[in-house]
Amino acid sequence: ARATQLQAEQLQTAISDLRRERFAKMLFAPGPSPLSPETWAATVTTLPSDIRASHLVFGDWLSVFSAALLSPRGVIVLLGFIGAIGLYVARARYLPRLSNRLAAHETDSEVRCLYGAIIRLFARSAPPALASWLIYAALNTAGLLPPRIQPVILAIVYGLALFAFVQALADALFAPGEPQRRLVSVMESTARTVVWMAGWLAIVMASGKVLEAWLQAIAAGLTLSIIVRSVLAALFALTLVVGLYRLRDNDEIEQEACLGPYVPVDGASLGPVRILSWVVGVAIILAVLLGYVVLATFLTEQVLWLGILAGLFVLLMQLIELGIGNLLTGEGRFALTLRTGVGLRAATLQKFAVVLTGVLKIVLIVVTIMLVLAPWGLESADFLTSLRAAFFGFQVGGVTVSLSSIFVAAAMFALGLAATRSLQGWLNDKFLPTTKLDTGLRNSITTAAGYLGYAAAVALAVSTLGFSLERLTLVASALSVGIGFGLQSVVSNFVSGLILLWERPIRVGDQVLVGDAEGIVKRINVRSTEIETFDRSTVVVPNSNLVSGVVRNRVRSDRTGRVLISISVPRTFDPTEVRSLLADAGTEHGDVLKKPPPNVLFKKIATTTLDFDLICVVGDVDQVGRVTSDLNYVIHKRLAELEKPAAAAELTVKGLEGIEQSLGSIATAVAGERKAPARKGASKVKASRSRAANEVAADETEEDAPAKNGSAPEAGKDEAAGKDDNKE
């Protein structure tokens, strides 16, 4: 079966290669040039017979059509024409009203503008296409389409539908005259030019299809077909070139000299599109002049086809980007139903919208690429064959690589992870709380179960891929060197984590001190351990540091905590009373353990204070801070009641013996500055000096008296001051 499948795939590949080769030969086959006189001479020679054939075919059909109108079949044709006219009238009457109604709401958001563009696209293109199809269906039902006329009528229907759709698509994207609903960021002149160019290119293409069908119906000569195709291709290229020429930013180019270098105002993507369009237009004209009419016709069809695909791609891409997000995460009924009825959270819907948007964008890009390459010989069967080979597997070095096995392995790994998470949740929430195990041991058991589950999930996924143990051993041997050097720290931390889980020097919930960080162990991970400090911050410590470093665990043996309160009291306090006060405060607190009882230590007799320590033990280390605060309040209150008023302080001043010598020096200096200008004043000066000396001696006597007796008589000082005033 595998050999038969391989032969079938090889045969299909050979057929596809042969078809592509024939397509390339036909596409690049040279033919008569329209500039050749022989081509025109042969066309003129066969033109009369082609005209007679046209009259014959068209005349016969008109005669049959006229006769059928007077028969019951004419009613069917009449109903078809009435329906077509009604569609055109409805389009002309209701489309402006619809546009005005949509324009009133399109300024609210981009989503409304997008929805309005889609509605206009269908409202403008559907009625003409449906009307043309009604006429064709009526004629075909009435039997008024002979084999030669039927392709012509089909070409007319196709041409009308093509023109209406292209015009509606261009108007929906570029919206000339209405920049508020424009989906493509371009100038107003660019929008008008693009819509004009799209309409005329569609007219030329539709006319060409109708003329080609008519030439085939009358079996026209080869030269006439070449001339008609050449003229249509040239008209198409000239329309394209004229439109590209009108796309120039004339205003900006004229102002370039005064406003600096030219900066294009349209979207950045229009630059490459213009260049490519110029190249294609010139290539079509050269192909027509050189006689490659088939190539020129093919290029004209591809230009219009790529333009339609580009417009639809932009429209659908915006619909996926805006529509899906608004549908799932907006405030509409559908999103509200999903949140309230189904029970999905807004965050879940947002994530689902992002994933769905990405998947739809990838699908749209793949489909667009396939449609672009389809006219060049790429068939869907070739793509499906390649996709089937990639999905179901191909051999690479004896190993079957396939998307299906990868998807199955990923699914098995996801199932293993889900089962492991469920087991961990059951152990952590249901089973282990019913046991008498401590929190750290529960965490170790849950983590070990997770490691085993992850290893089992990886082994299951690898076995699904088809890798044998020998290949895995080779891969592990090859990676061992890299792991030994590049991942040394990672492996060291992982092994240290296993040691922590097995030896359990620290456990989840322990209060530990690592370096400057002190807090509660919250989680022991594969690579590191998370410690939550008392200020609610998280410290991440590598597991290797906990194994090889110094760690202080306050609750390693039990969870009892030690409360230490140090106080200093004045020396006037009775130490026995202070001891009783502290012991009673610790004993009366409800969280302080009775065994061992609170202990008071007389630590030190300082110069002015007595230092005491109160040591208590609480049942849980988490209560140390609260109990310490409570005891501080109680001790402070009782010490305030025990405190005695302090005695008044006495101040003794010594060392005033040198004042006498200082005052004598001052008196001598003052006497030297006072010299009498006349002799008769000398006696007065001497008397003054003697009086000053007597006053200084009296002052010294008064100052010595307080120093010896401990008090200073104020009366003597007042009397001396009165004498000084009289002398002055």
Explain this structure to me?
- This protein is of the alpha+beta class and 728 residues long.
- It folds into four domains: 31-253 and 268-329, no CATH class; 393-467; 470-556, SH3 type barrels (Roll); 561-642, Alpha-Beta Plaits.
- The chain contains 24 helices and ten strands.
- The protein has helices at residues 2-27, 37-69, 73-103, 110-141, 150-174, 188-217, 222-246, 250-254, 256-259, 270-290, 293-329, 333-342, 346-373, 380-392, 403-431, 439-465, 469-485, 488-503, 543-548, 575-588, 624-642, 659-673, 682-709, 714-727, and strands at 394-396, 399-401, 511-514, 517-524, 528-533, 538-542, 552-553, 561-570, 599-605, 609-618.
- A hairpin with a 4-residue loop joins strand 5 (528-533) and strand 6 (538-542).
Summarize the structure.
With 728 residues, this protein is α+β, with helices and mostly antiparallel strands.
Any key phrases for this structure?
SH3 type barrels; 24 helices; 10 strands; alpha+beta; 5-stranded antiparallel β-sheet; 3-stranded antiparallel β-sheet; disordered C terminus; 728 residues
Task: Note poorly predicted spans.
Answer: 250-265, 676-690, 696-728
- Strand content is 5-15%
Shape: elongated
**Strand arrangement in the largest pleated sheet:** 6-5-4-3-7
User: Kindly state the mean pLDDT as a whole number?
Assistant: 76
The value of Rg in angstroms is 53 Å
Helices, by number, come to 24
Overall structural class, as computed from helix and strand content, comes to alpha+beta
In total, the number of domains comes to 4
The biggest sheet, with number of strands, parallel, antiparallel or mixed sense and barrel status, is: 5 strands, antiparallel
Q: How many β strands by DSSP?
A: 10
Distance between the termini: 145 Å
Helix content: 55-70%
